[in-house]
Amino acid sequence: MSSSPYGSWSSSFSPASVAASSPRIDGARFVGTEIWWGESVPSQKGRVTVRSSSGAEILPAPWSARSRVHEYGGGAWTADHAGTLYFVDAGDQRVHRMVRGAEPVPLTASGPAHGGLRVQGGRLLAVREDLATTPHTRAIIEIPLDGSSADDPSAIRVIARGEGFYAHPALSPDGTRAAWVAWNRGRMPWEEAHLQVGALDGGQPQTVRSRAALQPEWISDSDLVFADDPDDRWGLYRVSLDGVAPVAAPRPIAPADADTGYGLWVLGNRWFRPLDDGRIVAVRTNGRDAVVIIDPDGTVRPIDVPADGHVSVDDVDGSRVLLSGNGSRVDPGLWCVDVDSGDVVAVRGGAEVDPHWMPPAVSIEVEGPHGAVHAFAYPPAHPEATAPDGELPPYVVLVHGGPTAHVTGASSASIAFYTSRGIGVLDVNYGGSTGYGRAYRERLDGQWGVVDVDDVIAAATGLADAGLADPARIAIRGGSAGGWTVLSALVRGGAFAVGISRYGVADLRMLVAETHDFEASYIDGLVGPLPEYEQLYIERSPLTHTDRIDVPVLLQQGGEDRVVPPSQSEAIRDALAARGVDHEYVLYPAEGHGFRSAETIVDALDRELRFLGRVFGFEPRL
């Protein structure tokens, strides 16, 4: 064993290997005798392709399946059992049909964006978003498969249309009705979203009593299962229908102190799937994920699967289930699981990690000013290196975005990039995160910039007080809403010696003026509505208090970001420069909200490590 300072250990986890590491799976389907899945290709600027278990690439370059509906997209591709691919092209947002080996053929006209694709009974449903109309409109639509609507948009059947938002279209088995989730402008879907059912031959849709509905699935011509959280946890509910009208109030299915569902940021997530025999495969989240099978009588049985974080139930076929996600002991991947035999086959990724390099994260809980704070700690780990006696490790505190999101203690090359060099990582689920129930999530209501900051400080302080981290060498890093918390924590001062903000929010009034439709009213719940709360917007914004930031800051920004435009990071940059505060600003012109290109990922990690080394006083080995 060799002894060298924390942060200077040699590591095989280079920035390039992180960029090329485990695949980012984007949905999966059973197609004939094969399994198809979507996969991001960082080396091709984040292009999303579709691959097959036969080893073939179904969607060739330069095509890329990516949706911009609600800006975050999702559900950008699907396929029927015969092997016809339907996808949204990232460039023009039109839906295309592609017979294997042939050129894609457009099915929709130029203009609107599409997402949430679903093929059922030989029919294609989608969510459409038209930003050219005033006001902007969205719809649940059925797209003709013969290509007629590519030149004649009137050939599209509009099932529901409005100025609000839509997700999760599902066609009834008899093909006469559709169900979907809808919510109004001024609300976020985890605050209030409703299950609606409509007849395809017209008429007024009916709303099923629901609070924050997710993912309707038909289990017969007259029965639906969906997720909702009328109490504190998202759970499964069953409702019987007479036509499109509910016969009675929805009935809970096997309630649990866990969530089946989380924030509806993207359109492709699936938290459960009914099987043909009446059983349901479902994900239950309480910090980490568990996968269970629920019998028709309500009996619940756990399924032993490698994935325990952000698990999506992508498709079912008989007793076989496709699960994608990440895990505390495995790389991210895609698995085919037979719920009867228990057989688990890794289709893509999912390799076991070496525990000497990547031990499982430690779930911790500290007491903060607003109650318990949940986090996952990844101490430094190396099979051969140690630090000098008495030295405490530096740490990077990670702050997820959203802020309505959550982390699961998953293993990843991006975490090992730090821990293998002797830098600990603390991943915090501050108040406002999903995965712990509505009450924990609503802790942030009206308190963004207060509760999140208090919680990350409490988590970092708790780690230092326990003698596990060097209190003088704790950095904080986050992106988007996480970047807001980074900057807000630096304004607060005292806890963090370095800040790394990726496309972070700096000014609330600027955000409201520049951001996109989906999040236009998000700040109303997190802080308060304008104009009544304008003074609070000013007071909470880090840009107002840059005179309080006295530690080095690294700012990283995508030039094509439409959620948090470059003006936010550049305003902070200019304020720091005016005061002579140590900082670096990096603009990646071709990146949007989140870094997808391998080149960007490599450069961003390289800069972060060198920045930390310069400030914390170690010589990194890249």
Quick overview of this protein structure:
By secondary structure, the protein is of the alpha+beta class.
Q: What would you call the quaternary organization?
A: single chain
Averaged pLDDT: 95
Could you tell me the strand content as a percent range? 25-35%
Query: How many distinct helices?
Result: 10
Q: Give helix % range.
A: 10-25%
CA-based shape: globular
List low-pLDDT spans: none
Classification by helices and strands: alpha+beta
List the strand order in the largest sheet. Answer: 30-31-34-33-35-36-37-38
Tell me about the largest β-sheet.
Answer: 8 strands, mixed
Molecular structure report:
- There is one protein chain.
- This protein is of the alpha+beta class.
- It has an eight-stranded mixed sheet with strand order 30-31-34-33-35-36-37-38, sandwiched between helices. Strands 17, 18, 19, 20 and 21 form a five-stranded antiparallel sheet that branches.
- Helix 4 (451-465) crosses helix 5.
- The chain is globular, with a radius of gyration of 24 Å.
